[in-house]
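Support case: user asked for a sample of complex input and structure output to validate their parser. Sending the pair below.
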Amino acid sequence: MFHFNNIILASGSPRRKQLLKQIGIDFTTEISGIDESIEFDLSPERIAKYFAIEKARKISIKFPKELVVGADTIVVCNKKILGKPKNDKESFDMLSMLSGKTHKVITGVSLQCLDKSINRTFHETTKVTFITLSNSYISYYINTYKPFDKAGSYGIQDWFAVCVKKIDGCFYNVMGLPLAKFWKEISKL
Amino acid sequence: MFHFNNIILASGSPRRKQLLKQIGIDFTTEISGIDESIEFDLSPERIAKYFAIEKARKISIKFPKELVVGADTIVVCNKKILGKPKNDKESFDMLSMLSGKTHKVITGVSLQCLDKSINRTFHETTKVTFITLSNSYISYYINTYKPFDKAGSYGIQDWFAVCVKKIDGCFYNVMGLPLAKFWKEISKL
């Protein structure tokens, strides 16, 4: 009843792997290696979906029989898109910008299987509110956790949890995969 | 800077242990074994705090030098308090009641140290909205996960995540300990 075969996760994110395991999905992973630095004049939702589609497509071409899952998570604050920080300074600037405010986390997800003509893409948005972060909190976090592989420069599943006042929406979307919506879509296939 | 010594968690909950570890707290655990079946004519918030206080107090008397953390989580739907289900039928009834609705999860937390006259108690409330649960989803979940040690009969951190449409508030409060508020309170000591 709740079993899906031959799923490939087109992502190297340890969080996404952990989430698929949590809901009992058997899968393998392949890293797409697409260029995520391209900038577009599109809405954040369309950008997240664009990268999710590109990641899934790149792997789907190599494995046309399998169901490939691509996903991309972005953080939006004051209409500015925050990707992964390149260094300590970018990380500090991002967390300073997010301090005491509510921002949006958008994950785009694409499900593709060439042989079965499956091509579904959707997104989920969650609002996240931080406490006011002191400089010492921000420095402690960057030095200890090196959040350079995370959009917005934080991981809601590590120590940074103590800085998250509230969320409004799907928690797992903030970790990188909106589990409720993902399950609903995959169950339709 | 972010270090607390000699903390005792007055709880056997594996979720609470995991959460304290997540935020880097060193602790040991002692199980209070208090009777949680007592019923009161009090508000849900006061009941959660009452049990948190009782758990912490029972351990604090034995270890008067240490800081003891007691916590109690309850689920409230349609003004009815849902504790831990005793069997399959109670579990089925609880999940059927929660299906498609928004309910409240309240965790009371008590911090106590006899020798230092520390006695702080607070609570946090999170709203949780479920998708509409089919009977087959409910049966699958009960049979596979046996959620009998969980208030409201579900664990937001296991497969059941796919049934949680959204939350409004602190996610970790639903798991059993409101990390942001807990950190804020413990930092004041």
